[in-house]
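agent: user wants the full assembly modeled, not chains individually. Plan: 1) parse entity lines 2) check alphabet per entity 3) run joint structure prediction 4) return tokens. Steps 1-2 passed, three entities, 1052 residues total. Proceeding.
--- entities ---
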Amino acid sequence: MRTVAAVLLAGTMLAGVALPGARAADAAPGPTLVFTAIPDGDETRLVERFGKVAAYLQARLGVPVRYVPVKSYPAAVTSFVNGGVQLAWFGGVTGVQARAKVPGSRAIAQGAEDTAFRSLMIANRGTGLEPAPDLQPAIAGRTFTFGARTSTSGRVMPEYELRKAFGGRAPEQVFARVGFSGDHSRTIQLVQSGAYDLGVVDPSVWDLDRKAGRVDPSKVSVIWRSPPFPDYQWTMRGDVDATFGPGFTRKVADTLVGIDDPAILAPFGRSRFVPADNAEYAPVEVVAKAAGLLD
Amino acid sequence: MTGLDRAVRRIGFTGVSLAILALGIAAAAVGDFAVTASHPGPELLRMLHGLLTPDLRAVNLWALVDTLAFAVLGVGLGCASGFVLALGFPHLAAIRALCAGLRSVHELFWALLLMQVLGLGPATGVLAIALPYAGIFAKVFAEMIEEADRPALRVLPPGTGAVSAFFYAGLPDLIDQFGHYTLYRLECGLRSTLVLGFIGLPTVGFELDAAFKAGAFPQAAALLFSFYALVASRHVWARPWTVPFLVVGAALVLPAGLPGGDAWQNLVRFATRDVVPAPLRGADLLSGAPWAAAFGWLGDILRHQVLPGALATLVLSQVALCTMAALALALFPLVSRRFAGPVGRPLGRALLVVVRSTPDYLLAYVLLQALGPSMLPAVIALALHNGAVLAYLLGRQADALAYRADAPRGANLYFYETLPRLYGQFLAYALYRWDVILRESAIFGILGVATLGFYVDGAIAELRLDVAAVLVLATAALSLGVDALSRALRRALRVEPGARRRGGATSPPHLELASGRQGMTYDGT
Amino acid sequence: MTGTAIRIDAAEIGYPGRTVLRDLALTIAPGERVAVMGRSGSGKTTLLDLVYARAAGRAALVPQQAALVRRLSVFHNVHMARLDRHSTLFNLKTLVRPGRREVAAVRAVLDEVGLAPEIFRPAGDLSGGQQQRVSVARALHDGRPILVGDEPVSALDPVQGSAVLARLAARHETLVLALHDPALALAHATRVLVLDRGRIVLDAPARSLAPADVAAAYGAAEPGASGHDPRP
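--- prediction returned ---
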């Protein structure tokens, strides 16, 4: 018993000595650009996707760049607001939330697909629902799940459309049961497994999960596409130039727009990045305010 | 003697049990306990298959080390500050109120609030454990000090300072009890730390969450087993002489996590802006209008969030309490020598220890995925985890009973000898568990059940920390209310710890626990 | 060192719902050595508690159970008698690391009861008789003029018991001791009190009594109730 304890302890001590060194490896001289992203899908994919972006940015910008994963949409916004990260990959609504809290912060780039994004409503095959151009009355009374509460394509925009289609009634009044799955990959899994009849998801996550073989077309299918709206974007804090030098924000924006490596773009489900600005997200802001998500 | 005491004494154990059961049945009638998943079978089978084919490559040793580090530092800090608070506990009402407040807020809520100021850094993880644990430690240590028989205090020369007296004549005889209790708390701390991973701290829970979300059950199983191994081996690595190494090692390895930015600036913003009720923010506080608006704001929250959330929380916790009690009564023979025999007992014990080591949050999370969103997964999770804790404790008590030589066997023994004699203790333990269940019920809202945590989660998603603060306070008040009711019932039934001196039935579970043998668990999560 | 007398004058003494002592009028003068005797339950311990309380800080106590802190060493258990004479800081330091002077003083006292070799053993490891002697050593180390002892030598053989009582008599001016052995009582006390059901049934100078008188006074109430063989 004592020997086992001693061995375990030695291991712990060794870890104590070795680990700070190992973990301090990224503490290169000068400030580190830290960024995060809303966790909208499968985590392994997020780590792969943003790991590549971090490496790319570090090589092009000449400063250390680090990606830190978070578990929820509000955690991403909070770390941006708190100044823990300087850059973030936000959805439409989370971007508006974050920029409202951090004066001077700017949307600097978005995916080409994000200028006209559409939510997908998916249904379990067992419901017998067929695709339709409009929200069909037959969806009422089913069980239904959103993604994250502040997801643009997984909640805010589809809820807006649902309210329009069902005479201003809240989703809770339209459906038998309304849930928040937390992210798009999970929404797909829950609808596929039958835990919910219906759900709304982000088309890029839907495509990526399909390509990864995680969608069983015999169990789940798309039954509706929403009208277009602006969605994801890279947002930078306003105090970054003071830390990294004048023109840094410009340089990051240009670097992001300049990405043409398919190995980086493919895990995003984006063909390329294009410049963005805060004003483009005014429609999302209006809807979010109407939904009571923003003051 | 209060009116409650009189009423409770008139109806007795049976009456109180029936009243709680009736409330539980009423709650079950109004609550939503449907299996909403259309095909729960295949999903459960996939999980089970994953459990049987763990993918050991998924085990991340650093995540285990981090889990241990957070737990050691969180519980250590909570223990140290709880000890200091315990000294003032009997003398200062302010300290008692502070401790009640600290422990009435669940560590997940603490973490969500601390994140707003400290980011996802190590301080958030350590403090989220340390703050509520300090409140629990203070109360339990104070009870231990009060309960302790300290004859040496009498012979100290008059005029001995209180501090000298405590360190010479009090503490030395209590130190073993404190040690046992702290060790047990460390096990709870490991579970709490695991759960904190689900909201983003870099513990095993972080990876478990990812694996479950991705439906990677073999990986999830391996991660879970590595966590069980960590918990099960605690008697090996947590010893008096390893403590300094553990603490220093933990401080060294604690991961940097997500930097929080300027903590001071964030704290100022949090305190002067974020948690100030929206209508009062930047308003002229000398005029009446903002106050009227704030009043309306509060009324709105109470009506639309606190009230439905609190009702759902009470409904869930009541059903869970009854189910837990039934399960504990059914399961304790598994770990009792008289019933399970020398072969069955170790097996039963192993089963209960595994179930007990699985945090109920994790159980609910998994079951929710399989059964669909309703209160059912939450009830199963709460009943299983807490029922295992209770059954384990009752099994030990059952073995300590002195049976007559010609005692009957089987069901006759159970109903004529064992149950009647254990019932007082059983009731006391179940009531002790009540506010723990309530806090967990509130937390399950984060998973989607519409309890108070659901509304807290929503307020945080909308960055409305003022609303979140009101909701957390409401949850704390509810927890304190249930705690007070539980205490009053135990006192009226004379199953309170103090009753022991008056020739009553039982000592509180944490004293049971501290009385020696390993593997005990009770008070708290 | 002459103190004032201890006076007790009370009609009824006891706990809520239970009277232990009745019609008590007692004065103990400085320099007296009082042996309190009586069968168990006769009120001896209550009377001693009362005397200890009235002595108001002038008395050291040897309680019935040795009242040791089992986890602490013999040294610390004895040193406890002088906690009031040092600062809190010094006491805490002594708890961790005893000073040479304190160790020497405690060793000298332990020598008197034959326990010097055990000075750094945990008190909980000692036998019952040894624990009782530690308790006595603590009172000796305290050195207050009055000693109140509740069966302080019950776990010792008559020879050891006699030696310990002699030490106590040498150190303390006034002794008030509950004893159950009439021979020991008559050998070491100047005055004998016998209690029966809460009343004093005998109060006489020791030299006027023979062992048989004492035995008669409380042996009559219940022969052999003391559990110890009262010699004829």
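agent: reporting back. Residues 497-525 of chain B have pLDDT under 50 and may be disordered. The two ends of chain B are 32 Å apart (CA to CA).
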